[in-house]
Amino acid sequence: MDMQVYLNGEFLPLGEAKISVLDRGFLFGDGVYEVIPVYGGKPLRLTEHLRRLDQSLANIRMQPPLTDEAWSAIFDRLISGTHDQSIYLQVTRGVATKRDHAIPAGVAPTLFAMCTPIAPPPPAGIRAITVEDIRWNRCDIKAITLLANVLLRQQALDTGAAEAILIRDGKVLEGAASNIMIVLGGTLVTPPKGAAILPGITRDLVLELAAAQGVPTEERTIDLSELGQASEIWMTSSTREILPVIELDGKPVGEGKAGPLWAVLQSAYQAYKQMLRESARAG
Ligand code: PDD
């Protein structure tokens, strides 16, 4: 049986979920989204994800379409079983009567959500390349308009790497679909929030876990030259957790394998997930 998805107030099989070709998400990429990991049937950092959704919506001049309780009730119906999964949710500006860039008045947003299984990320680490960031200047908005991210990720895949690290004006920003953290002299360094990067929920959680482990952290601009000096480089995201980069632009990072600080944070992150699973079981 087709999995059930949510579309505009209804739960229906994926194959029956249809939107109009006049949907502004389809025509203009006019919408925002979230990806929320789920462990033991429980969404990780749900409130934080929903606040980021509100922020993305406000930035594109849209109101929150549902309360947290209403979103939660939808997710509860989409989540099945206790395996690791992720919720994808998307809000577009809805279906206008004609194609026109101007924001239409009085149009109901299109709301879509689905839940799909996620596989554990490769613990051995990945290869990455650095590329010039070709995206726009509002990367803090989690917009569905992802053409640049698609091209940059594919550029990495074409060279046998798994992720592209985006560089703008000589500064290291983030991955095509992840945030970046580097280890410099024992300190975990990550770029500051702002318009140039997505404020990652995993990034914040890893910074918190690092602080709890007594690992010094710093949020500051990273120069491209510092990537070469880093003993460890990690990419973080909701679906790929904390991924060590073991080779950058064809050269090994540190010892060319997942580093010791990664092992510390990886185990803290896995413990956090386990706590979530157990709290779900305890009801
Ligand atoms: N992407 N930066 C970008 C550009 C991203 O697309 C993502 C996540 C992140 C990490 O954010 P978070 O930790 O909140 O997942 C950073 C999601 C997973 C995606 O597009 O599928």
Secondary-structure blueprint of this entry?
Blueprint: E1 4-7, E2 10-13, H1 24-28, E3 31-39, E4 42-43, H2 46-59, H3 68-78, E5 85-92, E6 110-117, E7 126-132, H4 147-158, E8 163-168, E9 171-175, E10 179-184, E11 187-190, H5 201-212, E12 217-219, E13 222-223, H6 224-227, E14 232-237, E15 241-248, E16 251-252, H7 260-281
Parallel strand pairs: 7-8, 7-15, 11-12
Antiparallel strand pairs: 1-2, 1-6, 3-4, 3-5, 5-6, 8-9, 9-13, 10-11, 10-14, 14-15, 15-16
The chain binds N-(5'-phosphopyridoxyl)-D-alanine (PDD).
Q: TL;DR?
A:
The chain has 283 residues and is α+β, with helices and mostly antiparallel strands.
Main beta sheet: 10 strands, mixed
Say which CATH homologous superfamily of the largest domain is assigned. D-amino Acid Aminotransferase, subunit A, domain 2
Helical amount among residues, as a percent range? 25-40%
The rough form would be described as globular
Task: Give the total of domains.
Answer: 2
Beta strand count: 16
Provide the succession of SSEs.
Answer: EEHEEHHEEEHEEEEHEEHEEEH
CATH topology heading of the largest domain: D-amino Acid Aminotransferase, Chain A, domain 2
Known CATH architecture of the largest domain: Alpha-Beta Barrel
Please identify the structural class as seen in this structure.
alpha+beta
Rounded Rg:
19 Å
Distance between the ends? 29 Å
Small molecules held by this entry: N-(5'-phosphopyridoxyl)-D-alanine
Low-confidence stretches: none
Q: How would you sum up this structure, described in words?
A:
This protein folds into two domains: 114 residues, 2-Layer Sandwich (D-amino Acid Aminotransferase, Chain A, domain 1); 148 residues, D-amino Acid Aminotransferase, Chain A, domain 2 (Alpha-Beta Barrel). The protein has seven helices and 16 strands. Helix 5 packs across helix 7. The chain is globular. N-(5'-phosphopyridoxyl)-D-alanine binds next to helix 5 and strand 14.
